[in-house]
Design goal:
The chain is mainly alpha-helical. The chain contains seven helices and three strands, in the order ααβααββααα. A three-stranded antiparallel beta sheet has the order 1-3-2. Helix 3 packs across helix 4. It is globular. About 25% of the residues are buried. The mean pLDDT is about 90. One of its GO terms (molecular function) is DNA-binding transcription factor activity. This is ArsR family transcriptional regulator. InterPro entries: ArsR-like_HTH (IPR011991), HTH_ArsR_DNA-bd_dom (IPR001845), HTH_MetalResp_TranReg (IPR051081), WH-like_DNA-bd_sf (IPR036388), WH_DNA-bd_sf (IPR036390).
Length: about 120
Amino acid sequence: MNNLTQTFKALSDQNRLRIIVTLMEYDELCACQFTELLGIAGATVSRHLGVLHNAGLVQSRKDGRWIFYSLSNTAASCRPVLDWIREEARSCPEVKEDMARLSKILACNPEEICRKQRTGA
């Protein structure tokens, strides 16, 4: 029962839901891309990703200085819930805005995004 509670607590935040929905559309994204998409501090994004990781919903891999996140293999046990979220998200205007914004973010080099975030430009 604790796993179920932890999963629903992880999904109960709008930014974490946005992360999950985004990862359902894109296999893997860098933490800096989430920071840019969500428009919140990198530390806050890291905290959200940590909550999702602890709930077993996302996994990470490090590649040099980049940390990439994807849906975890264990998230498959939540497949019916994730399918429901995906279906509900399709009609959500905020999700459509996120996807349009993310396509612009993905057109940029992650190095450029990180530099911009570090300098606050």
